[in-house]
Specification:
binds NADPH dihydro-nicotinamide-adenine-dinucleotide phosphate; 15 helices; binds 1,3-dihydroxyacetonephosphate; Rossmann fold; 8-stranded mixed beta sheet; 2 domains; 8 strands; alpha/beta; globular; 331 residues; N-(1-d-carboxylethyl)-l-norvaline Dehydrogenase, domain 2
Amino acid sequence: MTAGVGVVGAGAWGTALAQMLASDGREVLLWAREAELVDEINSARTNSLFLPSARLAPSIRATTELAEMAALPVLLMVTPAQFLANVLAGIRREGGDVVLCSKGIEAGTGRLMADVASAAAPGAEIAVLSGPTFAHEVAAGLPTAVTLACAGGETQWQRLSPAIARPTFRPYYSDDVTGAEIGGAVKNVLAIACGVVEGLGLGQNARAALISRGFAEMQRFGLALGARAETLSGLSGLGDLVLTCSSTSSRNFSLGKALGEGMRASDALGAKNSVAEGAFTAPVLAEIAQNRGISMPIVEAVVTLLEGGAPAREVVAGLLSRPLKAEAVLV
Ligand SMILES: NC(=O)C1=CN([C@@H]2O[C@H](COP(=O)(O)OP(=O)(O)OC[C@H]3O[C@@H](n4cnc5c(N)ncnc54)[C@H](OP(=O)(O)O)[C@@H]3O)[C@@H](O)[C@H]2O)C=CC1
Ligand SMILES: O=C(CO)COP(=O)(O)O
């Protein structure tokens, strides 16, 4: 089989992307870390661990061999953010397109995914695919739109968009890679906060307030790091924030809900084999914001909760008792 597109990471999102890409019979190579999962995908056409709802297309082939991914013209990187550097470096890719689909910031270094990828695959042309995309809906062929931000501008877009677009999967062009990555990374942290509001039973008004004030934090952070305002208010920013803050289909929202209901962060995180990226992103995001003098009180509140620094009700009371101020985004 000669696949044109490789998907690296067979969690829920990598598997759903592979399924979407294979929906018209095109061949897709899917890398998974575990041999048992590769066997299951290739023989039973299921991924019972991460995407149990899907019957996988026959033109998906799974492999544990990273080397098989090296020569494919288009690679979608879909490991959790903290593993991107190691996995991509292991592919030893020398050129071609690398499309980043993980949402997070690297702990320890504070690098966004594009910086991680440029260091791990120096010759590759980077793009970011991000937006409101619950994996199970994409796998089911439900209509979905994303931002496809291309570092290589329109030339890269002309090459990539036909490889990625499908009748129910619609990428929109951008060249704002930083904006697309920041929206996806920050919204995960804000979704934890919205889950807390749900877990505490604080109501719909409070959730809408948190989404709006969280979006102000996303804008302050994004603009300070060079993102464009229209990207932050688009699919990969506001669009994904609204989705993830509204549903227990979100792992980040569910984590927050458990915290709001009184569960300890270590217990809530330990109970899952799926990733809640916001838990890894929150501390490093808060640190970058503090170092740059960017006010992000909701993100700081999430860090306090994750560290077990105070009960959820106390953390929310702290947010509500902040001094009254102007609503304007940059203040
Ligand atoms: N799920 C969704 O709806 C969406 C997710 N995303 C993003 O996609 C990324 C992946 O999430 P998702 O697919 O949901 O993940 P899942 O929670 O479904 O699965 C976790 C994945 O992490 C892998 N993993 C664990 N340890 C390692 C390691 N050391 N090296 C490499 N991989 C490892 C697991 O592989 P193994 O079985 O080998 O442990 C598994 O594939 C995240 O950044 C997420 O924010 C983006 C959009 C939508
Ligand atoms: O990124 C997502 C939807 O766009 C998935 O959100 P969760 O990782 O919180 O499940």
